[in-house]
């Protein structure tokens, strides 16, 4: 009977992780470039009372479930038209590469770039894009091609001048990237080695100027998952209550 209590309790804990993941997805339904997550579970060890033989099956009782991983959905989100020349959406594979204050590199699908006081292209948190791109502060207009080439028109000139080239970072397994907040990912062994490529070449996606990639979270799907998690949590709590009542019945027999 104690096994039932522990198994049901592990099920409640697992569904709490599930709800945590669903809640985070819903909280980021309007976050630029956000990629939804899903909680993945595995069954725990089994207690074997009798091994299988040629004439009978094994007698085993499982000891519950546990969170095994959180998977990521890297499907593209819907494009949002902003008409800002520094808002960029990646159509296809790849990430923008930025440099954090400690000098380490991070990767993002959030292309809402700005210019700092020196004309350097940076994220909303002030992290410069890598390789660095500086737009002259006196430029009258800026445009970015689908191939990631950055052009600026300077005062007294009619023809645009190239001032930089955006490159995209590609990974063999993007799902292996580690989320670090601020719409950023860090690379680790699970993602594989990073490869830099110009947009539109060697498998990299193209740049769409004046657009941002929205979150790929589907609200209706998350609501269905939430209801299922709630029901599973309630069922596991009911299993604990029933097991406790059965234990009380056993204790009553001793009196």
Briefly summarize what is shown:
The protein has helices at residues 2-27, 219-254, and strands at residues 37-43, 46-50, 59-62, 65-72, 79-81, 88-91, 95-99, 105-108, 114-115, 121-122, 141-144, 149-153, 161-165, 168-170, 178-181, 184-186, 195-197, 206-209, 211-213. The protein has 255 residues and is of the alpha+beta class.
Summarize the structure in words.
The chain has helices spanning 2-27, 219-254, and strands at residues 37-43, 46-50, 59-62, 65-72, 79-81, 88-91, 95-99, 105-108, 114-115, 121-122, 141-144, 149-153, 161-165, 168-170, 178-181, 184-186, 195-197, 206-209, 211-213. With 255 residues, the chain is of the alpha+beta class. It folds into two domains: 2-72 and 217-254, no CATH class; 79-213, no CATH class. The strands form eight sheets. Strands 8-7-14-17 form a four-stranded antiparallel sheet, with no helix packed on it. The chain has a three-stranded antiparallel sheet with strand order 11-12-13, with no helix packed on it. The two termini are 19 Å apart.
Detail the topology: elements first, then pairings.
Elements: H1 2-27, E1 37-43, E2 46-50, E3 59-62, E4 65-72, E5 79-81, E6 88-91, E7 95-99, E8 105-108, E9 114-115, E10 121-122, E11 141-144, E12 149-153, E13 161-165, E14 168-170, E15 178-181, E16 184-186, E17 195-197, E18 206-209, E19 211-213, H2 219-254
Antiparallel strand pairs: 1-4, 2-3, 5-19, 6-18, 7-8, 7-14, 9-10, 11-12, 12-13, 14-17, 15-16
Which characteristics define this entry?
31% strand, 255 residues, elongated, four-stranded antiparallel beta sheet, 2 domains, 19 strands, alpha+beta
């Amino acid at each position: 009977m104690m096994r039932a209590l522990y198994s049901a309790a592990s099920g409640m804990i697992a569904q709490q992780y599930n709800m945590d993941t669903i809640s985070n997805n819903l909280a980021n339904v309007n976050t630029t470039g956000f990629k939804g997550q899903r909680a993945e579970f595995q069954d725990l060890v089994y207690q074997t009372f009798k091994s299988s033989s040629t004439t009978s099956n094994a007698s085993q009782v499982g000891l519950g479930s546990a969170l095994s991983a959180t998977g990521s959905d890297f499907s593209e989100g819907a494009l949002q038209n902003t008409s800002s020349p520094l808002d960029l959406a990646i159509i296809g594979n790849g990430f923008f590469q930025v440099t954090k204050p400690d000098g380490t590199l991070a990767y993002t699908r959030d292309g809402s770039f700005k210019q700092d006081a020196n004309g350097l292209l940076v994220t909303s948190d002030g992290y410069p894009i890598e390789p660095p791109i500086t737009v002259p502060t006196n430029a009258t207009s800026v445009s970015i091609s689908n191939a990631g080439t950055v052009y600026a028109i300077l005062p007294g000139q009619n023809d645009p001048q190239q001032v930089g080239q955006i490159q995209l970072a590609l990974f063999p397994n993007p799902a292996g990237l580690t989320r670090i907040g601020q719409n950023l990912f860090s690379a680790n062994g699970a993602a594989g080695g990073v490869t830099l490529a110009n947009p539109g070449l060697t498998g990299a996606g193209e740049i769409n100027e004046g657009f941002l990639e929205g979150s790929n979270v589907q609200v209706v799907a998350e609501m269905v998952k939430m209801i299922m998690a709630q029901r599973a949590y309630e069922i596991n709590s009911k299993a604990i209550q029933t097991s406790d009542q059965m234990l009380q019945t056993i204790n009553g027999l001793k009196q």
